């Protein structure tokens, strides 16, 4: 080991004497992942005193200060978890902490900082990003000659983080063949790798970063610390633009491999954690599991290998869960959004829905009638690679090819284009149908000889009942009246509920989507 890594090892030894004054060791749990026979253990840092591992480093750093340094108060910058760790330490050590947080910090995270710190903490909201808040915090600390408690780029802070690895070694479940460590600034990753390599030198330590967050991987490749021009914040706990001055050489020395994961892969890992343990980690907390699942799917891991992942936190904003569920899909299947060209004829959507194999699930439909003889509905389909190959084959038999528009902005933001002036005798209804395979197809088959679908807006919600806003148009008022009568008979059978939107709502729909408003 280098001189720097030996210093880090010593700091972890010292931290063992401090951190348990405010928290207990967190458990190591064996996961039961579907269709994965390899032994996978999760270090459950989400069960710590602040639901994340950051309390370890913050407390160790502040407990190591002199009484005079603590008496003057400390300064920190954080977007969430580190702030809670500093707050917890400030209350326990009876000192003041001024914590700079971005203006965009959710109120729930601010509230948790105040709950842990009470009167010992002052929150200063500054800037639109962590970088801006951090710069302001450093400036304040310099001007007032106060100690800055760094979230990762400090050996004493890293020493505290390394106690989680000590608990893994002491658990008796090792040694592990692969250890996955997520990297933001690199403090926890470096400390974990340092401790693991000391006791299990044969273990392969794998650093995990988000695709658009990989500042450490970039630094390793370039041989120097380099700032990212853009940082994705979906995994906000690891959204760091530049590798740390201390963490960069440590990670370069101690980590064997660096991999990146996509946001979709992270969401699938969060879903896997929920399915196996009914646990919802925050996005960055699931990155290690996402990397394991990626390498397992690529055939890089043997069935007899023993692997360790770290669930580093569970402090996710509740409102983010809807987005995570949509990105994770159904039963771990991939969700793709397919734009399929169809003729402007009655029954066309019904025909193309029948191209979807039974194993796949329609989770989203976006369609509005526009000018032209060819229409372009979008179907969100959750399925396997085999399912998508079947869809492609069945469409090819009809002389059609679907376009994958999963990353198109108008699809992600549900901009359903629509030309109200092209409709004849339209009726807009809200429908409720059983979320069983074929329910919507049964409904369309019952009315398909009378009505043409001119608008459809549906998103799978995970409930037993699906809800959609649907527009139908008719060649005559007589057809419209007959269809209304049929729909009434269907209500409570194929369709559990159906009713027309109010005249005022119908006018708003038509006015909003008319060409003059675009």
TrEMBL record:
Catalytic EC class = lyase
What SUPFAM superfamilies does the record point to? ACT-like (SSF55021), Tryptophan synthase beta subunit-like PLP-dependent enzymes (SSF53686)
User: GO:BP terms for this protein?
Assistant: isoleucine biosynthetic process; L-serine catabolic process; L-threonine catabolic process
| Domain ACT-like, chain residue ranges per copy | 427-499
Pathway(s) it belongs to: Amino-acid biosynthesis; L-isoleucine biosynthesis; 2-oxobutanoate from L-threonine: step 1/1
Q: Which InterPro entries match?
A: ACT-like_dom_sf, Ser/Thr_Dehydratase, TD_ACT-like, TD_ACT-like_sf, TrpB-like_PALP, TrpB-like_PALP_sf
What cofactor is needed? pyridoxal 5'-phosphate
Catalysed transformations (reactions): L-threonine = 2-oxobutanoate + NH4(+)
Q: Does the keyword Lyase apply?
A: yes
Say which domain of life the source belongs to: Bacteria
* GO terms of molecular function: L-serine ammonia-lyase activity; threonine deaminase activity
* Enzyme Commission (EC) number: 4.3.1.19
Alphabetic keyword roster: Amino-acid biosynthesis, Branched-chain amino acid biosynthesis, Isoleucine biosynthesis, Lyase, Pyridoxal phosphate
Query: Coiled-coil segments, which residues?
Result: none
Database matches in PANTHER family? THREONINE DEHYDRATASE, MITOCHONDRIAL, THREONINE DEHYDRATASE, MITOCHONDRIAL-RELATED
Assigned protein family: Belongs to the serine/threonine dehydratase family.
> What name goes with this protein?
threonine ammonia-lyase
Native organism is Akkermansia glycaniphila
């Amino acid at each position: 080991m280098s001189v720097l890594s030996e210093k880090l090892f010593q700091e972890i030894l010292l931290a063992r004497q401090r951190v348990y004054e405010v928290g207990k060791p967190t458990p190591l749990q064996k996961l039961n992942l579907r269709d994965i026979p390899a032994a996978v253990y999760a270090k459950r840092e989400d069960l710590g005193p602040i639901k994340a591992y950051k309390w370890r480093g913050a407390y160790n750093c502040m407990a190591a200060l002199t009484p005079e340094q603590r008496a003057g108060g400390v300064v920190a910058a954080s977007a969430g978890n580190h702030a809670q760790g500093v707050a917890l330490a400030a209350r326990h050590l009876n000192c003041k902490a001024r914590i700079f947080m971005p203006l965009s910090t959710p109120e729930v995270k601010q509230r948790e900082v105040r709950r842990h710190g009470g009167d010992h903490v002052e929150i200063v909201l500054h800037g639109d990003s962590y970088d801006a808040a951090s710069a302001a915090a450093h400036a304040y600390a310099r001007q007032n000659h106060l100690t800055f408690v760094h979230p990762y780029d400090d050996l004493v802070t890293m020493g505290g983080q390394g106690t989680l690895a000590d608990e893994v070694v002491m658990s008796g479940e090792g040694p592990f063949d692969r250890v996955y460590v997520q990297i933001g600034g690199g403090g926890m990753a470096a400390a974990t790798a340092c401790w693991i390599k000391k006791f299990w030198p044969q273990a392969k330590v794998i650093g995990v970063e988000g695709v658009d967050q990989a500042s450490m991987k970039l630094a390793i490749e370039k041989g120097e610390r380099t700032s990212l021009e853009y940082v994705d914040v979906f995994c906000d706990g690891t959204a760091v633009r530049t590798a740390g001055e201390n963490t960069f050489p440590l990670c370069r020395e101690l980590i064997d491999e660096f991999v990146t994961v996509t946001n979709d892969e992270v969401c699938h890992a969060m879903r896997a954690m929920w399915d196996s343990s009914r646990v919802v980690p925050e996005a960055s907390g699931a990155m290690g599991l996402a990397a394991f699942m990626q390498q397992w799917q690529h055939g890089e891991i043997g069935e007899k290998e023993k692997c360790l992942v770290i669930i580093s936190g569970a402090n996710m904003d509740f409102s983010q869960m809807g987005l995570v569920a949509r990105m994770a899909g159904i039963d771990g299947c991939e969700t793709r959004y397919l734009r399929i060209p169809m003729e402007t004829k009655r029954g066309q959507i019904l025909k193309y829905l029948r191209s979807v194999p039974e194993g796949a699930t329609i989770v989203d439909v976006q369609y509005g009638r526009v000018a032209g003889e060819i229409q372009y509905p979008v179907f969100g389909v959750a399925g396997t690679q085999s399912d998508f190959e079947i869809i492609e084959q069945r469409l090819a038999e009809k002389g059609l090819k679907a376009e994958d528009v999963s990353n198109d902005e108008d699809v992600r933001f549900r901009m359903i284009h629509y030309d109200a002036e092209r409709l004849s005798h339209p009726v807009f209804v809200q429908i409720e149908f059983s979320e069983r395979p074929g329910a919507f197809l049964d409904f369309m088959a019952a009315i398909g000889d009378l009505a043409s679908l001119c608008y459809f807006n549906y998103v799978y919600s995970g409930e037993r009942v699906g809800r959609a806003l649907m527009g139908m148009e008719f060649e005559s008022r007589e057809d419209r009246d007959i269809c209304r009568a049929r729909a009434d008979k269907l209500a409570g059978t194929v369709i559990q509920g159906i009713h027309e939107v109010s005249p005022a709502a119908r006018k708003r729909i038509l006015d909003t989507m008319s060409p003059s408003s675009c």
